[in-house]
Design goal:
The chain has one helix spanning 200-204, and strands spanning 6-8, 14-15, 23-26, 32-34, 38-40, 45-49, 62-65, 74-76, 80-86, 88-89, 97-100, 103-105, 111-112, 116-120, 124-126, 130-132, 136-140, 145-146, 159-161, 166-170, 173-174, 179-181, 185-189, 196-198, 206-207, 211-214, 223-225, 231-232, 239-242, 249-251, 255-256. It is an all-beta fold. The strands form 6 sheets. A 10-stranded parallel sheet has the order 2-5-8-11-14-17-20-23-26-29, with no helix packed on it. Strands 3, 6, 9, 12, 13, 15, 18 and 21 form an 8-stranded parallel sheet that branches. It has a 4-stranded parallel sheet with strand order 1-4-7-10, with no helix packed on it. The termini are far apart. The mean pLDDT is 93.
Length: 259
Amino acid sequence: NGTGTISLGGLGNIDLRSKGYSLTLQGAASNLDFYGGLILANGKTFTLDLWRGGASYSTGGDVRMAGGFAGTAITIANGTIFILSAGSVGDSANNPVTSSVSFLTGANGAGVRGQFNLRNNQALSVVGPITAGGDLYVSSSTGQFSNTGLGFGTISGTISSTGGAVTLEGNTMDLGADVLGSAGINISLNDGSNSLSLSALELQRLNTSSTVVIGRANGTGTISLGGLGNIDLRSKGYSLTLQGAASNLDFYGGLILAN
């Protein structure tokens, strides 16, 4: 039932690798301030459950980079960040919480009340549902981004913003589960000179009543769409924008949008 702020770090990182435990931080509406980096042992899980009070609290449960800290907040080799509940994560896409983990997951029926902003400095696999009430930004800044899930039962890597836009970035993209953005979806590569390829199935996994934007405004790499047969997106209902500074566009099948 806690509502007080939890503060981690100060001078340097908090290196807990020798301790060997996973770590859960919880509260009814507790903020979390990172003043330094947290390092857990190989394969461990860092769980955030900071907004257990839910609708009982209009504020709180926010995860923040504090005191000018600009390093990596959460480091776990082969590890997982598990988002059960939070008010918000990061201030914006320009000031996200930073991490170095392999996996990101959530739970059905849980998630982040406001915006969710996470920049991971290695390949990242979303293996469970991630939901935010505001804008949702996830970047795998030096590796592949994927949301293929665990491949069994009801557990999937669905990414959803119920009240904002979804922005996904990676060196390469593998969209293996649905992406839902009420105010639009943005898909791009970290390096705009690289080629971005999305299959017909991946385009079918994008869901918004607004616009899907693919590519970067400064991009020069080729954008490739489709594969076998036409890409029929009439049932999805979104508009589509392909952007780049000097990007080629290769069609490997026809593209059909809604009326």
